[in-house]
Amino acid sequence: MKIRSDLPESVKRIVGKEHFTFEDLTEIIRFLRSPQGCPWDREQTHESIEICLIEEAYELIDAVKKKSAEKMTEEAGDVILQSVFHAVMGEEEGSFTMQDVIDAECVKMITRHTHIFGEESVRDSAGALKAWEKNKYKEKRLESAGERVKDVPETLPALLRAEKVQKRAAKFNFEFENIEDVFGKLKEETEEFAAALGEGDAAHIAEEGGDLLFAAVNLLRFAGVESERALAAATEKFISRFAETEKLVLADGKKMEDLSPEELDGYYNAAKKR
Fold it and tell me: Quick one: what percent of the chain has pLDDT higher than 70?
């Protein structure tokens, strides 16, 4: 790429590099936000780019699942970029800087690892996690059970948030004694959902449907299964079997939309065996 001649010398030096520093990345974003920079970058706010971080985080997770070092390198960089973008906007507002972000994170890593940097002792990873959580709640001044449960971010995916809320509640002994009781709760919520369907009230149906999902998450959590991962895997399995079902239907010279639910179920069962 030919470098523009009217760029500031400090920017030219960065653009012409082969290897960069974290400060170089910060300076690039600062320049893009400047009057000489990019119109799109200048227009952004903390709120307008919040979805970008969510998308980049999921893309990084996808790269991890695919075990692609190349994609992980790219997507981890994109996640870092979003943090730098927010920090640069914070500088412009005078509310916080990149140095504030780094300072806060380093302090957090030190003060929450009291079993490493302090005199606290733990035996295993479970003990380390307990120490981390104790220090976290102390720093946030979250003393009551209600405060700790309310602290679970509302922006988390619904299944993940439900599971985290249940885990925090369980730390205060708000927990079923055995899995049979959890099954009983799931049955109870299923019956209440069925009753709501019979009433035909949309708001009540949605409410009871939510309770049913919450109970299902609780059952999986009690069994040691992560609901978010389990549902993602089940969805992928369905997609694969649905695609195989269509292949079988087409192989018989038929179209899926022309078949009855019973006929499609037969093909689907056949696809499950393949």
Answer: 100
